[in-house]
Amino acid sequence: MRRTLIITCILLAAVLFIMFLSVDIATPRSNTRAAIGSIMYHRIPEYLKQHHQLPDRLADIPTVESYNDCLTDGWGRDIMYFKNSDGTYTLLSYGKDGKPGGTGENADIQETFNVSELTSEITRRTLGVIAEVRIPEYIKMHHKLPNDLRELPIIPREDNRIQNAWGREIIYQRTSDKTFTLSSLGRNREPGGNGMDADIIANFNVRYLGDKIHPAEVEKITTTSVPTSKPCKAI
Question: Is 87 part of any domain?
């Protein structure tokens, strides 16, 4: 009996230990990183899509469904936001003690992001929705490529813009009856350039099945853009 009780206790302890390991334990630092990540990768990009510039303060950015809407760190203090002169912006928390520097729980949490990388990513996503979702839907309906992006159908729960991150229309060119090019000029509105002035050009091909275009066969041939610097890693 005693031996059975000991074995039962050991098994119960093992189960509880496994359950403990499987639980995602949130800490003030992990909550801070989650809030910063949501601001950086979802909420500021959404603001940029709407206003074509960075916000002056975090209080102006919109919430995005299904993502963290917190503007404070894990210790309840406002996350700091700085627009830098080199075209980057920084999000910062001073950690548990609320003071610059420190180690462990008191260490700063900081992310700096390159705006040119952000605008490029927003534009690439818009190109992707146009080429891989909206144009195939148009082809299903009309069995040909559109003559103009304004002809494209509105797709529920998709980003239906035909403008780049700077608010200017994506350039669409039919290069044949089954190929097309989508291109976006950078901030300077001129061909070429680096960083935020870099162009993004993507060529696509659609394949025919008999005398009809198969909408599932929209294929990217090439994409050209000027490389930009990568965002900094968290400290």
Answer: yes
- Indicate the residue among 57, 86, 107 that finishes a domain: 107
189 close to 52: Cβ distance less than 8 angstroms: no
Neighbours of 123 (CB within 10 A): 26
**What does the pLDDT look like over 22-58, one tens digit per residue?**
444 679 999 999 999 899 888 988 888 888 788 999 9
Which phi and psi angles does 200 have, rounded to 5°? -125, 120
In a domain, 234, yes or no: no
* CA separation for the pair 193, 177 (Å, rounded): 31
Structural domain that includes position 35: 7-107
CA–CA distance, 98 with 108 (Å, rounded to integer): 9
Task: Check: CB of residue 160 under 8 Å from CB of residue 154.
Answer: yes
